[in-house]
Specification:
This protein is about 50% helix and about 15% strand. The protein contains 13 helices and five strands. Strands 2-1-5-4-3 form a five-stranded antiparallel beta sheet. Helix 11 packs antiparallel against helix 12.
């Protein structure tokens, strides 16, 4: 038995049938779930679950591990630990290319776009540069908190995203579709991130990722901002020429009410910054 198998077995034996909606019979030889019960809940065969627990299969797919995490009702911390165990088990990861810096001319273009909310991202959704206008828009959501902000990781992994996006379901579909498109085109970073989210988030991400939807590249998103209220923002996602595989995304008011709210909020923000 390896560490991954030991963890799965320990969690299986620690969860009661009642916790997953199964009847508790009088004749149970294990205090937790039977292998057959967990296998049925996760949609895998008993034989395959047995191989995993005994360490005979060290390279389970992210979708299988995510389904097991869902069935075992793992917490977010336990899911992260499970993801690390899978990586430590010797799974083959796609080649990941180091992020390439944004060209100076593209950075200069971002400066010219102020105070428009705009950013430059790569294929897997990592943000590399953004305007002050976008910082004002996105900072309250927590999107820019980490060293390498990522659109998909934020939408699926940060509870504040569900408050920021009133139409969270649509945004989640779009983020998953963009990640799937990048992975299908050979982007190693997108494939690795998709594997991570399949485990740490589970079915909520997995079903959107496997749906095969194609990202639109343009549309309208609803944002909820603590200063400006609810905003309807039209966005355009434009490919930046070059080998960096970057995209420039800009947000503009989709209606007059949003335009007025943005103008007032950004004016007040600029005044506060200079006073």
């Amino acid at each position: 038995m390896n560490a991954l198998g030991g963890f799965l077995r320990a969690r299986r034996e620690a969860i009661t049938p009642a916790e997953v909606g199964l009847p508790t019979g009088p004749r149970r030889r294990t205090p937790g779930l039977r292998r057959a019960e967990l296998a049925a809940l996760a949609g895998v065969s008993v034989e395959y679950l047995t191989r995993l627990e005994r360490g005979r299969d060290r390279r389970p797919s992210a979708q299988v591990v995510g389904a097991l995490a869902d069935a075992l009702r793992l917490s977010s911390h336990e899911r992260v630990h499970l993801h690390r165990l899978v990586k430590a088990g010797g799974g083959v990861c796609p080649a990941v290319v180091e992020p390439r810096p944004v060209r100076p001319t593209v950075l200069a273009l971002l400066d010219r776009l102020e105070p428009t909310a705009a950013f430059v991202a790569d294929a897997q959704g990592d943000l590399h540069a953004w305007t002050a206008g976008f910082r004002w828009l996105a900072a309250p959501s927590g999107l820019l908190d980490g060293e390498r902000p990522n659109l998909a990781r934020h939408v699926f992994g940060d509870a504040r995203a569900r408050t920021t996006f009133p139409e969270w379901e649509r945004v989640a579909d779009e983020r998953a579709a963009a990640l799937r498109a990048a992975a299908d085109l050979g982007d190693g970073g997108a494939a690795v991130l998709a594997e991570e989210l399949s485990i740490t988030v589970g079915a909520d991400f997995g079903r959107r990722f496997t749906a095969g939807s194609v990202p639109g590249g343009t549309g309208v998103e609803r944002w909820r901002h603590p200063e400006a209220g609810e905003l309807r923002l039209a966005y355009e996602s434009l490919a930046v020429p070059g080998d960096e595989d970057h995209r420039l995304v800009a947000y503009l008011p989709a209606d007059a009410a949003t335009g007025q709210a943005l103008a007032q909020a950004l004016e007040a923000h600029a005044y506060a910054a200079t006073s």
